[in-house]
Design brief:
It is a single chain. This protein has 176 residues and is mainly α. The protein is 65% helix and 0% strand. α3 packs antiparallel against α4.
Length: 176
């Protein structure tokens, strides 16, 4: 998935959860879900593509051995500061990123592609090369599907922007 589709997916999950809970989304939650949906790639892609410090663009930060403890720490800190919704939004964004990277393999049940979720216990699945973002863009083919996805993400982006402007800064503090 592209960064904008990761964010769109995480945002839509947050909207669904907020709707089901009957609550309004705050700016802090929008920022938290944005960070959660992007963090794994912001860590792994440069470490793999530019520094060759990890074996794949889906390894260290894509591993459940990092994602789960990190999400729990963020949730604990947010809970301690009386904003558990913000920690939940981060964790939801992080989980949505991992689901977004595995949905095709899940659909076709290609379990060998899930190995990055347990890196370094299991080797990462060699889904990509380490030639970098420039080569990725150079090899990118413009298709109808890509344009449709970009259009949907653009609409979601506008909705997020409007919601961000109108949202309260922080969720309502929970009583201690």
């Amino acid at each position: 998935m592209f960064p904008w589709t990761h964010f769109a997916f995480g945002y839509l999950l947050l909207v669904c959860c907020s709707f089901l809970l009957g609550r309004r989304i705050s700016k802090a939650e929008l920022v938290a879900v944005l960070i959660g949906t992007q963090l794994a790639d912001f860590v792994d892609k440069p470490l793999a593509w530019w520094f060759a410090a990890v074996p794949s663009g889906r390894s260290l930060a894509h591993s459940l051995l990092v994602a789960v403890p990190l999400s729990l720490v963020v949730l604990a800190v947010a809970w301690h500061r009386s904003y558990p919704e913000v920690g939940f939004a981060f964790g939801l964004g992080y989980v949505s990123h991992l689901i977004g990277d595995t949905y095709v393999a899940l659909y076709y049940w290609r379990v060998e592609e899930f190995t990055f979720l347990l890196w370094p216990i299991l080797p990462p699945y060699p889904y990509d090369d380490t030639t970098g973002f420039g080569n990725f863009l150079a090899e990118l083919t413009i298709t109808t599907r890509l344009l449709a996805t970009a259009a949907v993400c653009g609409v979601v982006g506008l909705v997020v922007l409007v919601q961000f402007v109108r949202a309260p800064r922080w969720p309502t503090r929970r009583a201690n």
